[in-house]
Write a structure and sequence with these properties.
Layout lengths: L3 E2 L3 H5 L8 E5 L5 E5 L5 E5 L4
Parallel strand pairs: 1-2
Antiparallel strand pairs: 2-3, 3-4
């Protein structure tokens, strides 16, 4: 199940690290996702389906 949330600066600054990688999907911009690594690094992913 996708975790839909608004990806805001306040949300990003308060993200908690977990033992496993997890992904948050933006509720406002379809196809935009943020991956959070256990090491604390973030990466953005974008996907468009036509």
């Amino acid at each position: 199940m996708k975790t839909l949330t608004l990806l805001t600066p306040l949300l990003l600054s308060g993200l908690k690290l977990q033992d496993k990688e997890y992904t948050l999907y933006d509720a406002q911009c379809e196809g935009l996702a943020l991956r959070v690594q256990p090491s604390g690094s973030f990466s953005c992913a974008s996907a468009r389906i036509f």
